[in-house]
Write a sequence for this structure.
């Protein structure tokens, strides 16, 4: 049972009850009327969107400098005026009489969708009940994506072999103690080779999520659960082929999406002018430095030890990759309310995911005149805030990227094969 949210679209929020909760049950006070209840079996997912007052989602990271792999989260609040979400109500529609347990329980699957496009898929981790007079009970529900499960899945000792980072991820997910579904994977080919000597042996008791974070640290790409629940691995972030999925402008240009909030950063902590990387099989680190930057901004260091990279050359390459000698002003996030978008723009904005490219343009006042400043940016994090009363707002957290363009034969601008024009 879907529900329309003001000037935002049609949404549904489904929770797996773990049993067939809808079908006709003989002599049941709640499910025993054949003209209302149907013969089963039916889906075990229950729609709770009509009782939901607010939903909040965050997936990814707020900045490309945020390392590690974290679970995406969703929280929502239910207004329970009839008590059907009460776990003690053994006569309610979501109570499983066969197993004598509440159907809406922790670690049940949960799926949020908009216009039949999934926005979040994960597991319920907790219900928090606030019982109030006048049957105004409220239920606060917390959810996490599959990294919640992977963080609590521990490996047996694993003797790895030298292989590409993407092959290591696939082997990790294939391990019998992990057994992550093959159909729920989106693994791109990695760029870095990981070591396979004794120094790289994975100790028994290592969590899947923490080891995935080590792979990401070596690759410097992205590992996350996408909006459809797929384990996603993307290679080292480098040049981005121009092709933004949506354009955000503040000048009302035709075909662009207007926004109402944008963040700009120009910070000293963006600078890294000394980077040290030591791989697991090495006795000393590989160091890259930018002396000119150190003279201007003091010494600011990034250090990695025990890297999974396979040799010194790869470690030095990573150290050089980590250098950011000069701070530059950049857009860090952009936020838009669906109420200000067209229906087509809402459809685009709703499904933007981590790793996509967007354009953000802002008009900058310069004395008596103004100029338009635009950047193509990679999306590193996505936040959705949905309210029954005020509608849907989405915020994208971004990072700078080097944009290249697809070679176009005989084009004056794009017809020369060079650092900015590439084969698509």
């Amino acid at each position: 049972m879907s529900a329309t949210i003001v000037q935002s679209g049609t949404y549904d929020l489904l929770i797996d009850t773990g049993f067939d909760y809808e079908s006709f049950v003989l002599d049941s006070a709640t499910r025993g009327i054949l003209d209302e209840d149907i013969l089963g079996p039916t889906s075990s997912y229950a729609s709770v969107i009509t009782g939901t007052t607010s939903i909040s989602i965050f997936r990814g990271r707020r900045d490309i400098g945020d390392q590690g792999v974290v679970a995406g989260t969703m929280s929502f609040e239910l207004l329970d005026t009839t008590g059907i979400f009460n776990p003690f109500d053994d006569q309610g529609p979501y109570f499983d009489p066969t197993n004598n347990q509440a159907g809406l329980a922790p670690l049940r699957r949960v799926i949020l969708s908009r216009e039949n496009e999934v926005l979040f898929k994960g597991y319920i981790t907790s219900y928090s009940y606030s019982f109030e007079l006048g049957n105004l009970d409220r239920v606060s529900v917390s959810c996490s994506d599959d990294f919640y499960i992977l963080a609590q899945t521990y490996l047996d000792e694993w003797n790895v072999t030298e292989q590409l980072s993407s092959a290591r991820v696939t082997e990790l997910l294939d391990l019998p103690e992990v057994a992550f579904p093959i159909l729920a994977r989106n693994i791109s080919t990695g760029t870095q080779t990981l070591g396979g000597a004794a120094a790289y042996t994975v100790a028994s008791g290592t969590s899947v999520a923490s080891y995935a974070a080590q792979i990401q640290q070596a690759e410097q790409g992205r590992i996350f659960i996408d909006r459809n629940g797929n384990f996603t691995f993307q290679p080292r972030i480098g040049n981005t082929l121009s092709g933004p999925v949506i354009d955000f402008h503040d000048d009302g240009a035709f075909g662009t999406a207007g926004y109402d909030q944008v963040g700009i950063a120009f910070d000293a902590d963006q600078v890294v002018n000394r980077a040290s990387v030591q791989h697991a099989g090495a006795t000393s680190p590989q160091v890259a430095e930018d002396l000119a930057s150190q003279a201007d901004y003091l010494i600011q260091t990034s250090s990695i030890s025990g890297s999974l990279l396979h040799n010194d050359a790869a470690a030095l390459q990573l150290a050089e990759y980590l250098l950011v000698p000069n701070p530059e002003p950049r857009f860090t996030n952009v936020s838009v309310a669906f109420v200000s978008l067209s229906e087509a723009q809402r459809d685009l904005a709703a499904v933007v995911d981590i790793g996509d490219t967007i354009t953000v343009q802002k008009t900058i006042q310069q004395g008596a005149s103004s100029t338009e400043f635009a950047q193509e940016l990679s999306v590193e994090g996505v936040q959705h805030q949905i309210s029954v009363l005020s509608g849907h707002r989405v915020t994208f957290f971004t990072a700078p990227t080097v944009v290249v363009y697809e070679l176009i034969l005989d084009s004056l601008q794009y017809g020369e094969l060079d650092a900015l024009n590439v084969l698509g």
